[in-house]
Amino acid sequence: MLNFDFIAADTSRSRIYLNALYLENLKPSLVVLIPPSARTVAGMVSRDDEYLLDDPEWPEAKVDLRVDLTELLDSFGYRYISLSDSDINNSKAVQYFASSQTELFVYSGYGGSILRAPILSLGKFFLHVHGGFLPDYRGSTTNYYSILKERRIGASSIFLKRDIDQGPIINRQYFRLPSKLDKLDHFYDSAVRSRVLVDTLKQVVDGWPGGIVCEEQDREKGKTYYIIHPVLKHVAIMKREGG
Amino acid sequence: MKYFYNSTDLIDERQDYIYSKFEGEDFIEAYLENRLNSLNLSSYQVEPIENIEFRVVCEMERFLNSDCESHKKNEAGFLSTKHFLLNIVRSFLIDNEKEAISDLDLLIHRFEVSKKIYPWYESAVKSGSGNDREYLLYLLTGLVLTHSYIKTGDLQHLSTLLKILDTVISINPRTELDDKEFDLFEVLVLSEINLVERLNTKTC
Predict the structure, then answer these.
(1) Angle, to 10 degrees, between the axis of helix B97-114 and the axis of helix B135-152?
(2) Do the chains contact at A234 and B27, CB–CB below 8 Å?
(3) What is the rounded CA–CA span in Å between residue B72 and residue B81?
(4) Residue A194 placed within a domain
(5) Half-sphere exposure of B64 toward its Cβ, with a 13 Å CA cutoff?
(6) pLDDT of B204
(7) Could you give the residue ranges of the DSSP H alpha helices within A47-157?
(8) Chain A contact for B4, CB < 8 A?
(9) Is residue A226, in this structure, part of any structural domain at all?
């Protein structure tokens, strides 16, 4: 069986991913923490946001998002180290990944923080779960567009390539809408991604390397979306609230 | 509640709309009030989509007929945005929707990345140059986005239209736009609020 490491930004998403892995007994060999910077605080709940979601349908999302990430890792008994810089593409980080014996990394970085050529050229596999059904929904905040178009949300796991959201697809799933859509950003989006992550890891870790079936994306298919305007985000959420 | 997404000059200080907070029905009311205030109106009329489309097509034809001097490229070989927009309008009007949308998507990408519209772009709408305050270009982009959303229902186009109009409202249109530009701005705002209202009430 293949071991994997987990690269974690200090975000709500990393907490929910790690909780999902813990619940499924999928233990990373090592968690590599990316320190936050002033630019990266957006992926965390703010002081007046709700920090705990208790939805029996989504146990993986039941994590206190205020808990320090290292405290959470300690409670799971996961080993961790921290990179020295919040820029994962800097030379020290590249050197670290180059010298690592691990072949497979789960990548849960900060929003907009993209792995660039030096890291992607190391011959390692970086597994990322995109919040949207690929290739139909590439880009950002795609699940809000998906709610407006077809009243469902999705997630897709891919191995990262240079072209954004265009790596080979390992697993993709649609999910019916959760009950509280205003909790999509910090809870449900991460929860649906974590479900795809768990299924993907089971598939990848057990089948490595010969038994993994990937689907190359057709570049001509699908559409790229950009951050949804807040008015449309409200319309998407309120449609659900209105039934 | 105040709509705050256009309260500072968005050409000087970009708005990324990242992790926007959900604030319930009051937010939609605040948005509507913001749009109506920009036109000095207190209410608006809900209109059939055909009326909106008719007005938008009239504006597109007016733009096409009024322009006889746009240069395709400048001395540096950069593509004229006005000419590029004219081509999109022409393609839409002759029912070459596929080409119009493919070109419009290039412009959407540039706007979404930079939150500005430049009068000149490297070919294939790459890096832009020139004065980023040619407001007519923002309005014309808004016009083709409105038309495109009506024709295709592409929600990305409506999302970008909302951002374009935030940008125009942020520069104080009543003082910065000339009369013709303001007329076009009025058509766009009234179309936008009608399209948002339709989406909000539409059942899936």
Answers:
(1) 130
(2) yes
(3) 8
(4) yes
(5) 17
(6) 47
(7) 69-76, 91-99, 117-120, 142-150
(8) no
(9) no
Instruction: Fill in the amino acid letter for B193.
Output: I
Q: Tell me the pTM.
A: 0.94
| Among the listed residues B98, B174, B185, the one whose alpha carbon sits nearest the alpha carbon of residue B141 | B185
CB A206 within 8 A of CB A1: yes
Alpha carbons B116 and B128: distance in angstroms, whole number: 9
Range of the domain at B135: 25-201
Q: Which residues of A touch B199 (CB under 8 A)?
A: 148, 232, 235
For residues A16 and A106, the answer to whether their CB atoms sit within 8 Å is no
Q: How many domains, chain A?
A: 1
The answer on pLDDT for A180 being more than 50 is: yes
Q: What is the pLDDT of residues A153-169, one digit of tens each?
A: 999 999 999 888 889 99
- According to DSSP, residue A35 is labeled P
Phi, psi of B73 (to 5 degrees): -140, 155
Q: Which tens digits make up the pLDDT trace of B162-198?
A: 999 999 999 999 999 999 999 999 999 999 999 999 9
Q: How far is the first Cα of chain B from the last one, in angstroms, to the nearest whole number?
A: 29
Among A234, A237, A241, the strongest candidate for a mutation testing the B interface, having the largest count of B CBs within 10 A, is A234
A26 in a structural domain: yes
- Tell me the average pLDDT across A53-59: 93
| CA nearest to B28, candidates A236, A142, A42, A49 | A236
Contact B199 A149 (CB under 8 A): no
Does some domain include residue A61?
A: yes
- B9 within some domain: no
For residue A66, the enclosing domain spans 4-129+155-217
CATH number, domain with residue A183: 3.40.50.170
- What is the distance between the alpha carbons of residues A132 and A111, in angstroms, rounded to a whole number? 14
Instruction: Tell me which residue has tokens 């880009």.
Output: A139
